[in-house]
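Need residues for this backbone.
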């Protein structure tokens, strides 16, 4: 963008925004592996037969929810690249 004649502040602002988007992408990737909906039950109306997945073992839910946080490759890339872009964006904005 410097070749196109843009000032350093505009380049810094753009890198900062791209960094924020990458951090949000990384956080979404981490939350996707978080088992947030484990143990939710589907409610049935009165008189209906029980649904096949309605009974969930309490110990199974506890073991899944207490599992360690999984940071996969996409999340690691988003968090690291986003952090670097944010720092570079701040440095370019200050100059």
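Answer:
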């Amino acid at each position: 963008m410097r070749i196109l004649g843009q000032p350093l502040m505009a380049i810094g602002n753009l890198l900062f925004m791209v960094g924020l988007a990458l951090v949000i992408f990384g956080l979404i990737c981490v939350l996707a592996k978080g088992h947030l909906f484990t143990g939710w039950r589907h409610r049935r109306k009165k008189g209906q037969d029980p649904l096949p997945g309605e009974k969930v073992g309490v110990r199974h839910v506890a073991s899944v929810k207490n599992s360690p946080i999984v940071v996969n490759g996409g999340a690691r890339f988003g968090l690291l690249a986003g952090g670097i872009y944010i720092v570079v964006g701040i440095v370019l904005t200050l100059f």
